[in-house]
Amino acid sequence: MDENDAMDIRFLTFPDFHSVYFYRSITLAILLAIGGLVLFKAAEMRLPELLLVGGCLLLMGWRFALEWRRLNKAGPASVHGDELIISNENDHRRIPLGSVHTVTTKHSLFMVRRYRSWSEHLAFVEFTLHNGERVYTLAESAVFESPAAKRSLTALQAAVLAAKVKRAAAG
After folding, report:
1. What's the pLDDT at 155?
2. Letter string b/e over residues 112-132, b meaning 16 or more CB atoms within 10 A of that residue's CB
3. Which of 64, 61, 82, 79 is nearest to 137 (CA)?
4. N or C, which end of the chain has less CB nearby within 10 Å?
5. Is the dihedral of CA 46, 52, 53, 58 positive or negative?
6. Global pTM?
7. How far apart are CA 36 and CA 145, in angstroms?
8. Is 5:155 a contact under the CB 8 Å cutoff?
9. Which stretches of the chain drop beneath a pLDDT of 50?
10. Which of 81, 69, 80 is CA-nearest to residue 136?
């Protein structure tokens, strides 16, 4: 992996992760307040309105819970040489890039670093290892970028391929 590829990998730093944790709690409070208002006004609403608003709120709650779970598994990451280093408060892992089976990205809808910023969007980066384990981190992405965090994903896939070729040549 050359230095230009390393520049294209835009993982979140440790302070950025704490910002995401902070705004996650604010987003949870907002969703709970909306849910409370819906419950409070449920008796005054007609059934179709209640079903529509309740259904949308349930979908948002499901997606928020899914992203909460992914964020709990994620940690700040970096690529050094042929290793992926993921650190969090409980663990510090060094994963050889040659042991990564696939790298995928998924857009984050509710996990943000700051509110009121459409240009700064986050994506979950999922590394699936050969043993089936999944490891997550966050990367910068554009709002409508497809796939999410396209530059980082391309650079990571190139780094994984280079590590596999290097390992195959050595072994």
Report:
1. 93
2. bbeeeeeeebbbbbbbeeeee
3. 79
4. C
5. positive
6. 0.84
7. 34
8. yes
9. 1-4
10. 69
